[in-house]
Structure formats: structure tokens, C-alpha cells
């Protein structure tokens, strides 16, 4: 898992991410690697 370079006030803590990560779907298809990690996407949406 890649770490997030910049943490902001509203980003998920490591403990919160540990609870949420198993609930997210994994990659199903081969192809280009994602530009952003799932953690970065969730933090951006929040």
C-alpha cells in the first residue's frame, strides 16, 4: 500500500482506513495502474 504524502486535517487516520479498506472492491481487470490510490480518492470525496 502506498502512503499518502500529505495529510490534511480531514484525511482518514490509519485506524479509520484499516476499517474501511477491506470493504472496498479490489481490482478486477488488468490494465493501466490507477493514478490515485483508493485512500486518496476517498479522502478527496470526503
Per-chain topology:
Blueprint (H helix, E strand, L loop, with lengths): L13 H7 L17 H8 L1
Pfam family, one: DUF4096
Protein name: Putative transposase of IS4/5 family
Organism: Micromonospora marina
- Roughly what is the average pLDDT, rounded to an integer? 83
Q: Spell the H/E element sequence.
A: HH
State the major sheet.
Answer: none
Class inferred from helices and paired strands: mainly alpha
Oligomer type: single chain
Q: Work out the helix count.
A: 2
Uncertain segments are: none
Number of beta strands: 0
Q: Which word captures the global form?
A: globular
Percent of residues in β-strands: under 5%
- Spatial gap, N to C terminus: 20 Å
Compute the CA-based radius of gyration: 11 Å
Q: Helical residue percent?
A: 25-40%
Protein name: Putative transposase of IS4/5 family
Region (Disordered): 24-46
InterPro entries: IS402-like_dom (IPR025161)
Domain Insertion element IS402-like: 12-46
Amino acid at each position: 500500500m502506498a502512503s499518502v504524502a500529505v495529510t490534511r486535517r480531514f484525511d482518514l487516520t490509519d485506524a479509520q482506513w484499516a476499517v474501511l479498506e477491506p470493504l472496498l472492491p479490489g481490482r478486477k481487470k488488468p490494465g493501466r495502474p490507477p493514478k490515485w490510490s483508493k485512500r486518496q480518492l476517498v479522502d478527496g470525496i470526503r
